[in-house]
TrEMBL record:
<dbReference type="GO" id="GO:0022857">
    <property type="term" value="F:transmembrane transporter activity"/>
</dbReference>
<keyword id="KW-0547">Nucleotide-binding</keyword>
<dbReference type="GO" id="GO:0016887">
    <property type="term" value="F:ATP hydrolysis activity"/>
</dbReference>
<dbReference type="InterPro" id="IPR015854">
    <property type="entry name" value="ABC_transpr_LolD-like"/>
</dbReference>
<dbReference type="Pfam" id="PF00005">
    <property type="entry name" value="ABC_tran"/>
</dbReference>
<dbReference type="GO" id="GO:0046677">
    <property type="term" value="P:response to antibiotic"/>
</dbReference>
<keyword id="KW-0067">ATP-binding</keyword>
<keyword id="KW-0812">Transmembrane</keyword>
<dbReference type="InterPro" id="IPR027417">
    <property type="entry name" value="P-loop_NTPase"/>
</dbReference>
<keyword id="KW-0472">Membrane</keyword>
<comment type="similarity">
    <text>Belongs to the ABC transporter superfamily. Macrolide exporter (TC 3.A.1.122) family.</text>
</comment>
<feature type="domain" description="ABC transporter">
    <location>
        <begin position="7"/>
        <end position="227"/>
    </location>
</feature>
<dbReference type="InterPro" id="IPR003593">
    <property type="entry name" value="AAA+_ATPase"/>
</dbReference>
<dbReference type="InterPro" id="IPR017911">
    <property type="entry name" value="MacB-like_ATP-bd"/>
</dbReference>
<dbReference type="InterPro" id="IPR003439">
    <property type="entry name" value="ABC_transporter-like_ATP-bd"/>
</dbReference>
<keyword id="KW-0813">Transport</keyword>
<dbReference type="GO" id="GO:0044874">
    <property type="term" value="P:lipoprotein localization to outer membrane"/>
</dbReference>
Amino acid sequence: MADDVVVQLQGVRKAFNPGTPFETEVLHGIDLTLRRGEFCAVMGPSGSGKSTLLNIVGLLDRPSAGKLQIAGEETTTLEDTALTRLRGHTIGFVFQYHHLITAFTALENVMIPMLGAAGFPNAQMRARATELIDSVGLTPWKDNLAGNMSGGQQQRVAIARALAMNPAVLLADEPTGNLDTKSADAVFTLLRQVNQEHGTTVLFVTHNPELARRCDKTIQVVDGKII
Ligand SMILES: Nc1ncnc2c1ncn2[C@@H]1O[C@H](COP(=O)(O)OP(=O)(O)OP(=O)(O)O)[C@@H](O)[C@H]1O
């Protein structure tokens, strides 16, 4: 595998409820290679398998068959604890719904992934979270409760939180799907900026062809296959 390949799927299949009468194969042999700094849009009809694909690349779910290498490591043979560790250090997630803790401030939400085993924040974590909040343009709002922020601001906090561990791969599942055009554009521009400044590889699910055109490449997932 070339050094700059950060995500590689070979013949990845995913079946839900395997071995039961309800078994359904949702991904039917996906091959995909993403290099460092690549920004790739994922498009395709509803129910075609885009989120399932992101969950597998994000090590939240395991393939039923095939190979998946993340940051040079073959993941299909890893035990759950090793998989969790690799996920924590390599992958950042941004979802359509921000999944912030609304009763925490913006800054506190960004510190959550840094807490780790310590379980409580220190000055270094606070400084790093402040830097991230600054980088997503939310300096004046850092002490606002996440629940009181606008949709676009919440998504910026979610991006800052996703970057807390400086991930090689950022997985964004329709992060702009719930936003008005102007906020969607601003969130996309921020993701692009992160990608270019840090060389983060981004996999970005969208139904918006305008935004897909602004990515380095687009894959179409149809009926569980890349076409
Ligand atoms: N845990 C599960 N158990 C059974 N079937 C599932 C499970 N998760 C997803 N599916 C099915 O897999 C298919 C693909 O779902 P997925 O959410 O990946 O599609 P999607 O392309 O992301 O859709 P959307 O654009 O609507 O978000 C759907 O038919 C869905 O019902």
